[in-house]
């Protein structure tokens, strides 16, 4: 419930809520009491009331908010680049669009089309030939005893990154799309 309440504070006031605020403030209610009644922040209530007393209207001004740095055509171009080449990074997209925008703008446009940046999915190439080789390897060692297995060293390779960049390629893709070929790269095993 607290998450919904916090989000509600930042959404726009509806015409009905603006009318309620004006009515309650006209009736002499305090800003704190009105904010609690309509479940909005005191700042939103105060701004609505000040607009009413200053301009005589409670209608939301058209065109309020930050102006867009990109056109709709440039927005479509950003999204198209991520679809065509999922491995393209934000700086390349920004250079190709040719508009001075911050990387968060590119991420926002791609998130609006349900594209998110994620690491490539690693997959072993389990072709029929690989399956056959694994089966042969297991069958050759099926009769081993404990002393034979004690001669084998098992290792767990972990990646430790001391810097900020791990040099792994990130791709743009929709959630649950990890098995598509552009976002998948294969790890080839050395031949014995």
From TrEMBL:
<dbReference type="GO" id="GO:0003677">
    <property type="term" value="F:DNA binding"/>
</dbReference>
<dbReference type="GO" id="GO:0006313">
    <property type="term" value="P:DNA transposition"/>
</dbReference>
<dbReference type="GO" id="GO:0005634">
    <property type="term" value="C:nucleus"/>
</dbReference>
<protein>
    <submittedName>
        <fullName>Transposable element Tcb1 transposase</fullName>
    </submittedName>
</protein>
<dbReference type="InterPro" id="IPR036397">
    <property type="entry name" value="RNaseH_sf"/>
</dbReference>
<dbReference type="GO" id="GO:0015074">
    <property type="term" value="P:DNA integration"/>
</dbReference>
<feature type="domain" description="Transposase Tc1-like">
    <location>
        <begin position="75"/>
        <end position="140"/>
    </location>
</feature>
<dbReference type="Pfam" id="PF01498">
    <property type="entry name" value="HTH_Tnp_Tc3_2"/>
</dbReference>
<dbReference type="InterPro" id="IPR002492">
    <property type="entry name" value="Transposase_Tc1-like"/>
</dbReference>
<dbReference type="InterPro" id="IPR009057">
    <property type="entry name" value="Homeodomain-like_sf"/>
</dbReference>
């Amino acid at each position: 419930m607290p998450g919904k309440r916090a989000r509600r504070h930042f959404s726009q006031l509806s015409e009905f809520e603006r009318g309620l605020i004006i009515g309650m403030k006209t009736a002499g209610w305090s800003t704190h009491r009105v904010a609690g009644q309509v479940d909005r922040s005191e700042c939103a209530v105060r701004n609505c009331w000040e607009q009413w007393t200053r301009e005589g209207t409670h209608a939301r001004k058209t065109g309020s908010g930050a102006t867009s740095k990109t056109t709709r055509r440039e927005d479509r171009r950003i999204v198209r680049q991520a679809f065509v080449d999922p491995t393209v990074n934000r700086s390349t997209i920004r250079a190709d669009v040719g508009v001075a925008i911050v990387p968060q703008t590119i991420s926002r446009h791609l998130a609006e089309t349900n594209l998110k940046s994620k690491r490539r999915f690693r997959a072993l190439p389990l072709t029929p030939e690989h399956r056959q080789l694994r089966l042969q390897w297991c069958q050759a060692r099926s009769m081993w005893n404990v002393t034979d297995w004690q001669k084998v060293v098992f290792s767990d390779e972990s990646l430790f990154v001391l810097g900020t960049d791990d040099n792994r390629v990130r791709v743009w893709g929709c959630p649950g799309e990890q098995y598509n070929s552009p976002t998948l790269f294969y790890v080839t095993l050395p031949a014995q």
